[in-house]
Write a structure and sequence with these properties.
six-stranded parallel sheet, alpha/beta, 9 helices, Quinone Oxidoreductase, Chain A, domain 1, 16 strands
Length: about 325
């Protein structure tokens, strides 16, 4: 089978299409024939060696999310049968990932994908929606809370806007001016230009002076000062993936202490025991049209490098995908 692997760490040039043996699922795993895989910023962290793979080193197959058809099942698998549609999240770190024609998936990281949901939508929604639900739970969000989503047009950000809105939050999204209409369409009650020189004041204006209860933060290194200044007393900043150092100045630390602020570091990749449940909830939200995950661009498997470069560029709305079966 074809698979995109790294044999060394580096930029997109280290990605190679290899012909490798089809994996054999263990007794509690499923072999998934991949139709569509998603491209996430986390994939680039593994590629660069910032987060080294934990499944025995290199070479390593990248990719965390995918949707496809069950090819075979292990002897102890009870929830899936051959030929069923499914989607997966949380691979690519402690085991080979989804940039491949077939992937072996532990049953707990898999859920059924209803016929009404396309493979593209399933692959696109798997990580951002489950991550958003996890982040809002970690932040202790309640209906009526003010929720700030930093990077609201991105893969996770645009899903977080929808989930927070669905759960009754007053949602403020930050994004570029070009993306503001789209972020409003996702359900944001207010939109702020994330390049504003006084971001905290712009956020306060957007909320009518109400402080923020929960921040879903996709780039804390750039935003931590504005987050703290915007936060309500007892509020929570939920930090998601971050590949830059987060530096908190003494004045910002003092403000955070005064507000009794909480910082939660939310790792989707470490929450593998809950992925099946999260994916099942995601499928229900998609079926009810309560979330609508945007696809920004789709690349063939052989152009995984270009797909990663596109994923990490600014200005896109939604997810970048790989067409694996085409």
């Amino acid at each position: 089978m074809r698979a995109v692997r790294i044999h060394e760490y580096g930029d997109e040039s280290v990605l190679r299409i290899d012909d490798v043996e089809r994996p054999t699922p263990g007794p509690e795993a499923v072999l998934l024939a991949v139709d569509t895989a998603a491209v996430n910023p986390f994939d680039t962290y593994v590629r660069e060696g910032y987060v080294p793979p934990e499944d025995g080193g290199l070479p390593h197959v990248l990719g965390g999310d995918a949707a496809g058809v069950v090819e075979s099942v292990g002897d102890d698998v009870t929830a899936f049968e051959t030929g069923e549609r499914a989607f997966v999240t949380g691979l690519g770190l402690d085991r080979p990932g989804t940039y491949a024609e077939y992937v072996a998936v532990p049953e707990q990281r898999l859920a059924h994908l209803p016929e009404s949901i396309s493979f593209e939508t399933g692959a696109a929604a798997a990580e951002p929606v489950t991550t958003s639900m996890q982040a809002l739970e970690r932040g202790g969000m309640d209906a009526g809370d003010v929720v700030l989503v930093q990077g609201a047009a991105g893969g996770v950000g645009h899903a977080a806007v929808q989930v927070a809105s669905h759960e009754g939050g007053f949602v403020v999204g930050t994004c570029s001016p070009d993306s503001s209409d789209a972020v409003r369409a996702f359900g944001a009650d207010a939109v702020v230009d994330y390049s504003d020189e006084d971001l905290a004041s712009a956020i306060s204006d957007a909320t009518g002076g109400r402080p923020v209860d929960v921040v879903v933060e996709t780039h804390a290194a750039a935003n931590v000062t504005a987050d703290v200044e915007s936060l309500a007393t007892g509020g929570t900043i939920v930090v998601l993936g971050e590949d830059d150092d987060i530096t908190v100045s003494s004045p910002t630390a003092g403000t955070a202490k005064g507000k009794q602020a909480s910082f939660e570091f939310c790792s989707h990749m470490r929450a593998t025991a809950h992925h099946s449940e999260g994916l099942t909830r995601t499928a229900r939200l998609l079926q009810r049209n309560e979330v609508d995950v945007a696809v920004d661009a789709t690349f063939p498997l052989a152009e995984a490098g270009a797909a990663q470069r596109h994923c990490m560029s600014s200005g896109g709305i939604g997810k970048t995908l790989l067409d694996v079966s085409g």
